[in-house]
Amino acid sequence: MGLARESCDGYDGASPVANSIRLHHHFPYHFPSFSIGLAAWLTVLEALRLATGRPVYRVIFDFWLKIFGVTFGLGVVSGIVMAFQFGPNWSVLSKMSGPIQGPLLMYETFTAFMLEASFFGVLIFGRSRVPPWFYLFSTAMVALGTTSSAF
């Protein structure tokens, strides 16, 4: 006798499998949402730094860039796991909706993710290597890639 309740299909809601599925599906929904807002915030901070020249915007930008990097990495890793879960966990769904899901996953990978990941490399390693306007452009492209990956 515990606090776990039986669900309507007979599975214990506190089982390790149910908790694993909850955990794996929590990340791909929450990290991209946070990343979309954070990428836009980084773009605003970099634009303010260029417009005003105040160093405080650089300090704030660098702080949030680290958090964005962690969020981006966790979103990528959990998204890969979720994409591979389609086959084993929802094989009938994947078989029926594969012609729809496949192109959408391909679009997200080859356009949004590649745009985001390429310019994210500039954000991490390129501040001293590129002109300030291109760094702002890279920040905006990361925000565009992050936002377009939600569609």
Number of strands: 0
Structural class: mainly alpha
Q: Give the terminus-to-terminus CA distance.
A: 44 Å
Number of helices: 4
What's the rounded overall pLDDT mean?
A: 82
**Radius of gyration using CA atoms only:** 20 Å
Shape: elongated
Order of helices and strands: HHHH
Domain count: the total is: 1
Query: What are the low-pLDDT stretches, counting only 5+ consecutive residues below 50?
Result: none
Percent strand: under 5%
Quaternary structure annotation: single chain
Helix proportion of residues, in percent? over 70%
Q: Specify the biggest β-sheet.
A: none
For this entry, give a set of tags.
single chain; 151 residues; mainly alpha; elongated
Walk me through what this model shows.
The chain is mostly helical and 151 residues long. It has one domain. 82% of the residues lie in helices and 0% in strands. Helix 1 runs antiparallel to helix 4 (132-148) and helix 3 packs antiparallel against helix 4.
How is this structure best summarized?
The mean pLDDT is 82.
